[in-house]
Specification:
- There is one protein chain.
- By secondary structure, the protein is an all-alpha fold.
- The chain has one domain.
- It contains 3 helices and no strands.
């Protein structure tokens, strides 16, 4: 069952990436690259990573990234 959950997560991530790459009306390519870099921790860490960041302010989160 856990494998199925990870496959579903991977499909959702891939769908989101594809949607961002296809959309040329909202973001330029340099903006897309910056956006993707910012999303990497959440994409790789999944829901546990996102939930672990929930109590942080943006400033606190940014300090952790350095």
């Amino acid at each position: 069952m856990l494998t199925s959950i990870y496959k579903l997560h991977a499909m959702n991530v891939n769908t989101g990436i594809w949607a961002i790459l296809r959309n040329n009306e909202m973001l330029t390519w340099p903006e897309k690259v910056k956006f993707a870099i910012g999303l990497l921790p959440a994409m790789l860490g999944g829901q546990p990573y996102v939930e672990a960041q929930d109590g942080l302010s943006v400033q606190e989160w940014m300090k952790k990234q350095v």
